[in-house]
Every structure is written in C-alpha cells, then in structure tokens.
Write a structure and sequence with these properties.
Elements: H1 3-16, H2 23-33, H3 42-59, H4 61-76, H5 79-83, H6 87-112, H7 114-118, H8 124-144, H9 156-167, H10 176-186, H11 191-219, H12 221-224, H13 229-253, H14 260-278
Helix pairs in contact: 1-2, 1-13, 3-11, 3-13, 4-6, 6-9, 6-11, 8-10, 8-14, 9-10, 10-11
Length: 284
C-alpha cells in the first residue's frame, strides 16, 4: 500500500466512521478501486479506527474525564465518600457502569467470531445487502422513534440493548453508529442523546479491537495478514484528524436534521454495489 493510498483510506475512514453509513464497508469497497485492487483487511480497518476514536476522546474530553474520575472514585472510596457525591457525579458513575455493561456483548462476539470477521463478513454481497437492510432499519427507528428520553433515563436493559446492537457492527455495512443509534431511537432517545451514548459506548470496543489487532499484527503476522505499518500509521493519523471535524459537524447537524440523508445514501450505495457485483465489475 502506498502512502497516497493510505491517506485516501484514512480520509474515507475519518469521513465515514461517525456517520451511520459504515466506515468498514467504505474501506472494503474503496480497496477494490485503488491501484492495489484488494481488501485492506480487518486488521487495517481496526487499527485505523484507533485514530478516529482518539478524535472521540478529544471531542468528549470533559464527559469522559468526568465519567472516569467519578467511577474510579466511587469504586475505591469509602461509603461516606460515595454517599457525599453530587447528583452529577452519581450520574457519571452510573454512565460508567452502563458503558461497561454495553461493551460486554461485543467483547464476547468479537473474540469468538474471529474467523467470520476476517473472512465471511468481508463478502461484498453481504456488505451491499446489509447497507440496504440497515438503512431501512435506521429510517424506521428514526421516523417512528419517540424523542422523550435523555441519557439520565438510560438503564441496564437499554445499555445492554445498545451493546447487542453494537455487535452487528462486526459486519461491514451495518455501521457501529448506525446500529447503536437505531437502537437508541427505537428506545425513545433523542437523536443527539442516542448519538452521544453511541459514541461513548464505542470507545472501549474500538480501542480494544484496534490494539488487539495491532498486537496480532506485531506478534502473529500470519494470522493478521500482510500489513504495511508505515502506511497504516499514516492512515490512522489522517482518520483521526478528519474524524474530529466530522464529529463536530454531526453533533451540530443532529440538533435540527434527521438521518434521512444517510438512509438514502446507504440505499443508493448498496444498490450500486449490487449492480457492480451482478455485472462482474467488482469481485465479491
């Protein structure tokens, strides 16, 4: 992979990671049209997501540090100190536990389904199909979902439901943000609130997956497949820079806009990909 190709893929990763259109699907498709004409691979995809997740850390820095400090303080402090915590700190502690609960499903599925993640799930026929199917799911959830709940009302069953939705993101084309936001909208959370929790929930899963794949690439390259570390690093940095701008734009957009533009884009891309596959222009 050349540096130019790495920058292109990094830009694509940064542009698509936080929009509900599936960054992994876009990287999978883009690889077919670059000079190398090959799938960048699950390892490359997971590592570049570290860059975009760093963008989440920067953008939500106050939220994240508040959650971590309150959660650790509650965990190690005496009962008297815990009881003296403010309502805001208690809410942060609760959010910390809910992020942990929501992360459990993808840890289990991601670890036990490595073979499918690296091979079966990479089929472009599957990618095209889920782009369309989960585009419809996103539209239904957004259109019919109530906007009555805030994250203060998030509970364990809802957190676990978000987590189960996040496991679907292991299939390129589903979209991590698309699946979790759809679940949030179906449960009655506003667009902004559903998106905020979706981004916070992704942090441990994405970092865990990215560093797991990085470790595999370093210590077990035969399992990870060929990987250009310099090109991957360039793509990761590029993705992080672009991703930060996209988060800032999306959070402003959702205060007044809907997910319909992303739904239409998913349907169009999925339909075009099916045509390209059926006519032999692209190899699945």
């Amino acid at each position: 992979m050349s540096i130019v190709e790495a920058i292109i893929l990094g830009i694509i990763q940064g542009l698509t990671e936080f929009l509900p259109i599936s960054s992994s699907a876009h990287l999978r498709i883009a690889g077919e049209f670059l000079p190398a004409a090959t799938d960048p691979g699950a390892t490359f995809t997971a590592i570049t997501q570290i860059g975009t997740e760093i963008a989440v850390l920067v953008y939500f820095w106050r939220d994240i540090t508040g959650i971590l400090s309150s959660w650790f303080r509650h965990l190690v402090s005496s009962r008297a100190v815990r009881e003296a915590m403010s309502p805001q700190q208690r809410a942060q502690v609760r959010m910390g536990w809910l992020i942990i609960v929501g992360t459990i499903p993808i840890v289990i599925v991601g670890y036990t389904a490595q073979s499918a993640i690296r091979e079966v799930f990479r089929s472009l026929w599957l990618v095209a199909t889920v782009l369309i199917v989960f585009g419809v799911v996103l539209w239904l959830a957004d259109y019919f979902g109530r906007t009555t709940k805030t994250l203060d009302q998030l509970n364990v069953p809802h957190g676990l439901s978000y987590g189960l939705a996040q496991t679907l993101a292991l299939i390129p084309g589903v979209s991590r943000s698309g699946a979790t936001i759809s679940m949030g909208r179906a449960l009655g959370y506003s667009r902004v609130e559903a998106t905020r929790y979706a981004f916070l929930l992704a942090i441990p899963a994405v970092f865990g997956s990215g560093f797991y794949e990085l470790r595999t690439a370093v210590f077990n390259p035969a399992a990870a497949g060929p990987l250009d570390f310099v090109a991957t690093a360039v793509a990761t940095v590029t993705a992080g820079l672009v991703g930060f701008a996209v988060i800032a734009w999306l959070m402003r957009f959702l205060t007044t806009g809907s997910f319909l533009p992303f739904v239409l884009y998913r349907l169009g891309l999925g339909g075009l990909l099916l045509v390209l596959l059926a006519t032999g222009v692209v190899d699945a």
